[in-house]
Amino acid sequence: MEECKYCFKSIENGSTVLDLLANHDVICPVCRRSLTTSKKKFYIQKIKVNYVYVYDDFFSSLLVQYKECMDEALADVFLYTKRWWFSLRYQGYTLVPMPSSNEKVKERGFHHVARMFENTGLQQCDCLEKISSQKQAFLNKKDREKMKFNIKCKENMTIPKKILLVDDVCTTGNTIKGALHALSVYNCKIKIFVVAIHPLNLK
């Protein structure tokens, strides 16, 4: 019996007739329906931020299991049902994942953002890096704002002409702003996509 990659129950757990007729998934319908979606719009520096899910308790628990518990098997869960739409929507763009600290990548054994987008079929360019590995969670609001200057382009890298900036979650937006600041000296077209967005950004 095939199991849901998150709850480990049958992959058919909670299935309706439509679920059984739909494309194969890697998590059961109960878990998939537990992920909250929204059609509200959000912009960073006048660039529309496209996203799939709202960052709520269920998404947070899924992300923690993936990132902090290093459960790489969950990497494909987030965009599995959107991967074909994604590859068509952003055809011709190069994925540029938000950078993680070298320490975190080494600890996990994989770059969690890059891995989430691996099966979208788009080429990736790891051209950004953090100047400091300090976490935003431990900073006050004023210092968090300064984090937009904490990202730079790697030296001797060819910057793509059409870039899709991607991240797992958008909370304050400062990481994305940092990437936009670092890329501002290059003549490139930029779009933004995050897997989930914090609900405070949707009010």
From TrEMBL:
<dbReference type="Pfam" id="PF00156">
    <property type="entry name" value="Pribosyltran"/>
</dbReference>
<feature type="domain" description="Phosphoribosyltransferase">
    <location>
        <begin position="153"/>
        <end position="196"/>
    </location>
</feature>
<dbReference type="InterPro" id="IPR051910">
    <property type="entry name" value="ComF/GntX_DNA_util-trans"/>
</dbReference>
<dbReference type="InterPro" id="IPR000836">
    <property type="entry name" value="PRTase_dom"/>
</dbReference>
<dbReference type="InterPro" id="IPR029057">
    <property type="entry name" value="PRTase-like"/>
</dbReference>
<comment type="similarity">
    <text>Belongs to the ComF/GntX family.</text>
</comment>
<protein>
    <submittedName>
        <fullName>Competence protein ComFC</fullName>
    </submittedName>
</protein>
